[in-house]
Amino acid sequence: MAIITGQICPYCNVSTELVDETEIYGEILYGRKYLRCKVNRDHYVGCYRSKEVKSLGRISNADLRALKVKCHVVFDRSWRDAINSNPHARILAYKWLSDTFEIPFEYCHFGMMDEAWCLYILSSFESELPMQFV
Ligand SMILES: [Zn+2]
């Protein structure tokens, strides 16, 4: 749990610290706080834009961040266009993902997934693109 919530860096097995966005990007880009590994400054994850500190998932290195973006680019197409006609399209898409890959719904977020999961899901998308949730 400490890993998928960004409290522990899974690469270095050390705790993380809360930092401002300027510590990550040198400027404000997304208006978030970040949890960052205390050993390697390239291991970090963004937090929700809320008063409570809640990470978007696990601490990631550059490779995992790129994989998460890829997963979202492919997967989000399944619900993004449908959201105007069906406000539940996004939830339905994540329910499909949860059912298809047998991941408990509350843990079915790309932000929580590691490299192996992202690669597995991406390779599955190539043969079985997620359905459109209209
Ligand atoms: Zn680390």
Given the structure, what is the number of helices?
4
Secondary-structure content class: alpha+beta
Which residues sit in consecutive blocks of at least 5 with pLDDT less than 50?
A: none
Between the first and last Cα atoms, what is the distance in angstroms?
Answer: 34 Å
Strand content: 5-15%
Q: What is the total tally of β strands? A: 4
The total domain count is 2
Q: Identify every distinct bound molecule in the structure, by name, code or SMILES.
A: zinc ion
Q: Give the oligomer, counting copies of the same chain as homo and different chains as hetero.
A: single chain
Strands in their spatial order, largest beta sheet: 1-2-3-4
Name the helix and strand elements from N-terminus to C-terminus, one letter apiece.
EEHEEHHH
Helix content: 25-40%
Tell me the radius of gyration.
Answer: 16 Å
> Mean pLDDT score, rounded?
92
Major β-sheet, in short?
4 strands, antiparallel
Protein described:
- The chain is an alpha+beta fold.
- The chain has two domains: 1-60, no CATH class; 62-128, no CATH class.
- 37% of the residues lie in helices and 13% in strands.
- It has helices at residues 21-25, 62-80, 89-101, 115-127; strands spanning 8-9, 14-20, 33-37, 44-46.
- It has a four-stranded antiparallel sheet.
- It is globular.
- It starts with 7 loop residues before the first strand and ends in a 7-residue tail after the last helix.
- The mean pLDDT is 92.
- Bound molecules: zinc ion (ZN).
